[in-house]
Amino acid sequence: MISDPAGAIRRAALLALPVGFLGVFFAYPVASIVGLGLAHGVPDLGQFRGILWFTVWQAAVSTALTLALALPGAYVFARLDFPGKSLLRAIVTVPFVLPTVVVGAAFLALVGPDGLLGIRLDRSVPAILVAHVFFNYAVVVRVVGGLWSHLDPRQEEAAQLLGASRVRAWIAVTLPALAPAIGAAALLVFLFTFTSFGIVQILGGPRFATVEVEIYRQTAQLLDLRAAAALSMLQFAVVSVLLLGQAWLGRRRESMLSLVAASSAVRRPRGKGWFVLAANLVVMLVLLVTPLAVLVVRSFADGLGAYRALGQNDVRSTLFVPARDAIGWSLAYGSAATVIALVVGGLAAAAMTRRAGRLTRAIDGLLMLPLGVSAVTVGFGFLVTLDTPPLDLRSSPLLVPLAQALVAVPFVVRTVLPVLRAVDARLREAAAVLGASPWRVWREVDLPIAWRALLVAAGFAFAISLGEFGATVFIARPDTPTVPVAIFRLLGRPGELNYGQAMALSTILMVLCAGSLLALERVRLGRSAEF
Amino acid sequence: MLRIEHVTVSFGAHRALDDVSLAVADHEIVSVLGPSGSGKSTLLRVVAGLQNPSAGSVFLADRNQHGVPPHRRGVGLMFQDHALFPQKDVAGNVAFGLRMRREPRHRIAGKVAGLLSLVGLPDAGPRPIAELSGGEQQRIALARALAPEPRLLMLDEPLGQLDRTLRERLVTELRQLFVRLGTTVLAVTHDQGEAFALADRVVIMRDGRIAQDGSPQDVWQHPGSEFVARFLGFANVARAKITAGVAHTPWGPVAVPGAPDGEHPPDGEHPADGEYPVLIRPGDVRLDPDGPIDATVAARTFRGDQVTLHLTPESGPPIECSVPLDSAPSPGEGVRVCLTTAQALPE
User: Domain range holding B313?
Assistant: First the structure.
């Protein structure tokens, strides 16, 4: 380890931009919300007790359901080898990068008015829960399955040779090793469902609201900023506790485990293995594929009519512009947000590559906060704070990308940082001794290894920005809506044509998000030797 | 070329290096030898600038290196596990240091070809690193370290992971190469055979301190302490009271011809009376039917034509002795042993 003052200065310089970015576009707006909420004393939160209770229990049930359905899925991906596995892995990941608005629309197409199933389940809790499982299935498969696939199966075999039954061996050896990953996945799912906005907003109807949805209603519909600020603080407090828990679990997860290359741990299914595989395939098909298929089918209910309507600017149109324009705005905003998120997240990851000091850990945690703090709060904070010079960004085209980047930065850091940290420190030292300056070391050693992770991070950032709804719905100007905002507005209007257009836009957005993900999935699988 | 003055490196309460001073002259090959954890790798990292000393200074060509980052020190370091860049091919690895010096492309290509011939892999340029065997990796790592013509080349366990025969061949090759090129070398290793075959001078380290510093022959003939003797593989070391040139060892009295300070004593001079660690070399242990010591053969270790016998004497600690293969007794057999001379070691 190089313990030099120059290195510390370098790291500080690298961190300046990310910290400044977070300070101005996250801490400042959120702090302003807190200030606003406290300006006239602590408001009475008692009236929101019901909403908080609903938010907590639906998140808990959603998490439990997701774990129950997705843990067997994680096993299938970690331990079984079957044809079409990598394609299936990509398909399973698609729902997670889908905009929540699209997820809501897909379930509406399935169980909403004139839904394909013929039963009305919208405006009901089961629809919300199932949509949450749909959305978060991939989180459990990726987080738990990722570790599971690298656990040395010989440990379980050793336990069996020592006389443990297969179940006992699993409980005694594999489960404890997986426990931190399961805990981390559960916390993430709880976090996502606790702050769920788009899905509940679309499927919940007026009866059901999470804290996040209520913040939006208080702000946008009832114009009660005090209540909204108080709710934001409440949510912030809960999320902070959850994130602290996640950081703690994350540290435990990094503890020493005997890991192997995933390819050495997979087997062709045998006997009961085929049954397990088939059962999981059915779950994935029904849970993950059906809603998306129905969405596509519904968008073509009127032939290409809905798609044609996207290009027209009806006087009675819900939007001020043709719906098609929203696609252009989404792509433009998404690209800008991706660039911002890559620069901010990449710099932060480069600075934090060395696990050093309490400060690094604190910043690491700070960077994760936007992941948990409600996007609605952030959007609301933007509205409140970024309207006075020198930070008058109300009319700036950068306002939306900035908010979207804020949500994407944690994903960029989380994708790039582990790869950078896995780079053998001796390679950097070897380069330095051979005459490479710190900047050259980064370019010659880190970048060639990390560029693939950067590419994947870019894809994630782009998909997240495309689908971002909670913050964008606040700050996107009426004449420059993004696709999710347009979908939401179209769904809010009666009429078959509006509905069809919403389905068509959702389908297009789904194809965009899934396409960017699948393209990157190919990059990752095609080029890197797995280890 | 290199002067290390009173360097200390502390990790918390642990001192990896403790007031170490060492100098390496131009064109000299010095081996630092010590068990793992004795601080020898830390020593190289301090010289390379990868580790800042808690105290003391490093001079290269009489310039204090305080605050000079690794990439401006002009030293070469061959890492223990080679640390070849996996994303570059062989030529890309060897060319790296030259590119960092901004040499023109055509000169780089020529030099890389020359270095690859020098290490005996003239056609390896386009090969990926992952395809190389351990010995080939070692050669490429050497070529890469030599390429920028460092004023001091440091080797960290250069042959550590290679198998025995390859190691013995390569160590001779390395020495010939360094002598021919006039390279100044500081190598660390835990293997005495390697250190003695490679170096003009051997420095033995223990717990972050230098235990002995001398020519291979000198160190081998006059271990500076009980630790050095044991580290060099001598087993017959015990404390003994010496009076009038006779050591009273746990195995009985043995003659002591030399002085304890490691210098060659004038004939007939004995060490001053007192208590010393004494060393009885395996060659000074003779199987002799009339010998005074009764012992049983506990085990045998084959070393080519010689066999090392591990003997359990009737009294005193185990004794090792070296005998020709064809006359070696079997385990369990009783033998009689005679200790001809003991060597008194400094405290």
Answer: 227-344
CB count in 10 Å sphere of residue A362: 10
**For range B206-216, the mean pLDDT:** 92
**Pairing verdict, β B252-255 and B246-249:** antiparallel
Shortest Cα distance, chain B CAs vs residue A419, angstroms: 14
- Please judge whether B85 and A3 are an interchain contact, meaning their C-beta atoms are less than 8 angstroms apart: no
- pLDDT of A27 > 60? The answer is yes
Local structure of B35: helix, strand or coil:
coil
- Is B209 in the same domain as B244? no
Asked if the model's pLDDT at residue B96 lies above 80, the reply is yes
Burial class (CB in 10 A: 0-12, 13-18, 19+), B104: exposed
Instruction: Verify whether the Cβ–Cβ distance B96 to A444 is below 8 Å.
Output: yes
pLDDT per residue as tens digits for the range B217-252 = 989 888 988 999 999 889 899 988 888 788 888 888
Phi-psi region of B76 (alpha: psi -120 to 50; beta: other; left: phi over 0): beta
Contacts of residue A332, defined as CB under 8 A and 6 or more positions apart, other chains included, come to: none
Does the pLDDT value for residue A530 go beyond 50? no
Q: What average pLDDT does range A68-95 have in this prediction?
A: 85
Q: B268: burial class by Cβ within 10 Å (0-12, 13-18, 19+)?
A: exposed
- Asked if A426 lies within 8 A of B79 by C-beta distance, the reply is yes
Please indicate whether, in this complex, the C-beta atoms of B69 and A4 are within 8 angstroms of each other.
yes
- Rounded CA gap, B305 and A63, in Å? 72
Q: Which residues contact A375 (CB under 8 A, 6 or more apart)?
A: A195, A197, A212, A403, A407, A468, A469, A470, A471
d(CA B215, CA B165): 25
pLDDT tens digits for A337-377? 999 999 999 888 888 877 656 677 777 777 777 776 778 88
C-alpha–C-alpha distance, residues A32 and A39, integer Å: 10
Q: What's the pLDDT at A259?
A: 61
Q: What pLDDT is stored for residue B212 in this prediction? A: 92
pLDDT of residue A263: 64
The answer to whether the beta carbons of residues A402 and A415 sit under 8 Å apart is no
> pLDDT (tens digit, 9 = 90+) per residue, B296-338?
999 988 887 888 899 999 888 899 988 888 888 888 888 999 9
Taking contacts as CB-CB distances below 8 angstroms, the residues of chain A near B58 are none
Q: Which tokens hold the place of A471?
A: 């913050």
Q: Which of A131, A174, A139, A128 is nearest to A67 (CA)?
A: A139
Domain end, chosen from B226, B258, B275, is at B226
Enumerate the residues of chain B whose CB falls inside 8 A of the CB of residue A437: 69, 71
| CATH code: domain of residue B280 | 2.40.50.140
Which H, E and C letters describe A391-410, residue by residue? CCCCCCCCHHHHHHHHHHHH
Are B331 and B211 in a shared domain?
no
Please check whether residues B221 and B236 belong to one and the same domain: no
Q: Which of B171, B191, B226 is at the close of a domain?
A: B226
Region of A41 please: left (phi>0), alpha (psi -120 to 50) or beta: left
pLDDT at B147 over 80: yes
| Same domain flag for B10 and B139 | yes
Closest CA to B309 of B103, B298, A468: B298
Could you tell me the domains of chain A?
Answer: 51-206+260-299 (1.10.3720.10)
Which residues, numbered 66 to 85 in chain B, qualify as contacts with chain A under a Cβ-Cβ cut-off of 8 Å?
Answer: 69-77, 79, 81, 83-85
Does the beta-carbon distance from B85 to A431 stay under 8 Å? Answer: yes
Tell how far CA A227 is from the center of its chain.
27
- CA distances, A317 to each of A302, A474, A489, A493 (Å): 18, 20, 10, 10
Do B185 and B166 reside in the same domain of the chain? Answer: yes
Nearest-CA distance A147 → chain B (Å)? 25
Contacts of B77 in chain A (CB under 8 A): 429-430, 433
